[in-house]
Amino acid sequence: MHIPDGFLDAKTAITSAVIAGGGVGVALSQVRRHLVRRKVPLLGLAAAFIFAAQMLNFPVMGGTSGHLIGGVLAAVLLGPSAAVIALTCVLVVQCFLFADGGVTALGANVLNMAVIHPVIGYGIYRLIRHRLTGQRGMIVAAAFASWCATVLAAMVCAGELAFSGTISWGLAFPAMTNVHLLIGLGEGLITALVITAIARVRPELVAESLQPTIARRSGEFVGLGLLVALGLVIFVAPFACPWPDGLEKVAERFGVKSVATMLPAPLADYQVPGLKSAVATTAIAGAIGTIMALGLALLLARILVPKQTDETRFS
Amino acid sequence: MKHDFLDRYSRRDSLIHRQSAGLKLTGALVVVLVTVIMPRTAWTFFGVTGLILVGLAGLSRLPALFLLRRMLTLEPVVLGVAILSLLQPGGGVIFAGILAKGTLCLFTMILLANTTPFAALLAVLRRLRCPAILVTTLALMYRYLFVLVEETERMNRARRSRTFRRQRWWEWKTLAGVIGQLFVRSTERAERIYSAMCARGWK
């Protein structure tokens, strides 16, 4: 999902960098205020840990392999703000040291993988943990949250590419989303397995009610959540709902043509037959996929945790 | 450090290596920015920039084979996204344009990474008043990156020599165990580092 240089135009690069910068800023101020001093080295080590974990390849079908993104994993283990900072550092190092992901696209990459992925994932994780306790609840929450976060981050990535006029929405959205509907399953499975493995060795790292020092503060989450929503509204909403047409009509009525030209109307899509339906099909597949992913997460929890041991160690 | 594999040439000596990190960082950013802003059909500009970059690479006396290998490992990322653009109307021009841009920027960043030590880049960031937590995290991350990668490989080797079942599910479970163990060790190492930092008078 690393966008290289040259794929985003100036307005997309700047917009995404501003939102990502806001997200990192909120996370930094949260961490500065609430992180205990002895946890400062942990931030750096966690960033290095995610980098190393991303290098391990998991075998997927037919000789191909995938690897972890790790946003939700970091958010569950460290809290959302610390996860945002750790993942930002991972992306900065990947960009400047390994030339993986572009400099001008750094803002977009940080937004997708270091802000949206952990924050959305953490939100969903907490939401499910409210309803499902015990170790099974933890597995369901981690797996499903990772899946959702991965798919959403991919959708925003497609939105950024379409916004730049590099790849039209009708092409980018189905391609990115369909691939990540599957990649998300892998991400969910790895995240759930890793969290289970950590809980087995050091239960307090996962179960201490999610780091009372830095998480559990709703204010922190509201700030980050708003920024994520802003990113979604800017990069996905114009394509996903009929607003641009409506806005264009309004603009025409009032004779403000310039507004209409500023909006990224996906006109090019209409020229290619079948692409419009591809978007619709992908949206439906996404909706069905969400239900299926939740079902799979529940199944996974059932497989990993036998009934009698549940509810005894974590609740 | 065995795993000093990706920026091992950054501490060599040459005309380019001796320049200040701030200058090189600014230069690389300017080249990338201008390349990105240029229209997709500015072929003479792309050609001239490419020639200048190759000249700089020659001056930096980095092994050509190493640079080529780095380019070849990263080019598929650029190519993968670019190929999608071929499928839309008028995609040929867009494809060629973003391919040229992506490749030039990639080459610029590879040159920067391999002629400038990461610590020097961090010093520039610190001078630019980048938030201290971010710089500290980056510095610690860079310092322990290679340690953790080495540790991961050691654990992975141990895992492979002890597990003979080739079932996918089993492999995923043990690999997840490796990652989990890596996190546990990272937290323990972080504790030790904190004690060591305090013992050495960290503010």
List the helices and strands and how they pair.
The complex is a heterodimer of chains A (315) and B (203).
Chain A: H1 10-34, H2 40-54, E1 58-59, E2 65-66, H3 71-78, H4 80-98, H5 106-131, H6 134-163, H7 169-201, H8 203-207, H9 218-235, H10 237-240, H11 243-253, H12 257-262, H13 268-271, H14 275-304
Antiparallel strand pairs in A: 1-2
Chain B: H1 15-18, H2 21-37, H3 43-59, H4 64-85, H5 91-115, H6 118-127, H7 132-162, H8 168-199
Helix pairs in contact in B: 2-5, 3-5, 4-5, 6-7, 7-8
Q: What is the compact description of this entry?
A:
The complex is a heterodimer of chains A (about 325) and B (about 200). Chain A has about 325 residues and is mainly alpha-helical.
Can you put this structure into words, describing what you see?
The complex is a heterodimer of chains A (315) and B (203). Chain A has 315 residues and is mostly helical. Chain A has a single domain (10-240, 272-309), classed as Arp2/3 complex 21 kDa subunit ARPC3 (Orthogonal Bundle). Chain A has helices at 10-34, 40-54, 71-78, 80-98, 106-131, 134-163, 169-201, 203-207, 218-235, 237-240, 243-253, 257-262, 268-271, 275-304; strands spanning 58-59, 65-66. In chain A, helix 3 (71-78) packs across helix 6. The longest helix of chain A is centred in the middle third of the chain and has 33 residues, at 169-201. Mean pLDDT of chain A is 77; it is low at 209-215 and 242-273. Chain B is mostly helical and 203 residues long. Chain B has 2 domains: 8-123, no CATH class; 131-199, no CATH class. Chain B is 78% helix and 0% strand. Chain B is built from 8 helices and no strands. In chain B, helix 3 (43-59) runs parallel beside helix 5, helix 4 runs antiparallel to helix 5 and helix 6 runs antiparallel to helix 7 (132-162). Chain B is globular. The two termini of chain B are 29 Å apart. The mean pLDDT of chain B is 85. Chains A and B meet through helix 1, helix 2, strand 1, helix 4 and helix 7 of A and helix 2, helix 4, helix 5, helix 7 and helix 8 of B.
